[in-house]
Design goal:
The protein is mostly helical. It contains six helices and two strands, in the order ααααββαα. The chain has two domains: about 15-120, Arc Repressor Mutant, subunit A (Orthogonal Bundle); about 125-178. A two-stranded antiparallel ribbon has the order 1-2. α1 packs across α5 and α2 (about 35-50) crosses α3. The protein is globular and about 50 Å long. The two termini are about 30 Å apart.
């Protein structure tokens, strides 16, 4: 049982995420002029385009106004293009331009290398155990968030498990600090 804030798992996880993010931001801003928000947008579109603004905001863990400002700036920098969604005339689909794809191809391998350097502190056994643990904790956090939003008591209800090992929507599969 934790005796102070610094012993709480959520505090320590947040600290790790913030440190990892700061490392990425320093490199991406210095070498490519990309803020963390911009990098998340480029990285998600590089892997999953086309995407709607709402879907992009959700996956990037940004509110819609932050995502909208980021997209507008990246369109102005000619890294992103916007097209009408053919299935929904009012909708917009976002994709990377050729220049945006070039940035993605240069930056993503560096993100992978940064993650590998961080994970190199773990043994192979620890690394293999980490992914399912993160998935399980993410599932639990999503359940607790849904409980909080609905006003249900948070008791010790166990998270529903997907026998396939994940939600299937990529929530825990993205390394947000990349």
């Amino acid at each position: 049982m934790a005796e102070n804030l610094k012993e709480l798992f959520s505090y320590r996880l947040n600290l790790l995420a913030n440190l990892s993010t700061r490392i990425a931001v320093m490199r991406n801003e210095r070498e490519h002029g990309l803020s963390m928000r911009d990098w998340r947008i480029v990285a998600l579109l590089g892997a999953f385009a086309p995407m709607s603004l709402n879907h992009l905001a959700r996956e990037a863990n940004l509110d819609k106004s932050q995502a909208s400002r980021g997209v507008a700036e990246l369109i102005e920098r000619r890294l992103i293009s916007r097209a009408t969604d053919e299935t929904d005339g009012r909708g917009v689909k976002l994709s990377l331009t050729a220049a945006g794809r070039g940035v993605y191809r240069r930056v993503f391998p560096k993100a992978v290398a940064r993650n590998e350097r961080l994970l190199s502190a773990l043994t192979l056994t620890e690394r293999r155990a980490l992914q399912p643990i993160l998935e399980k904790l993410t599932e639990r956090a999503l359940t607790l968030l849904a409980d909080e939003r609905s006003g249900r008591p948070q008791g010790n209800r166990r998270a529903r498990r997907n026998p396939g090992g994940g939600r299937g929507n990529g929530v825990a599969q993205h390394v947000r600090a990349a």
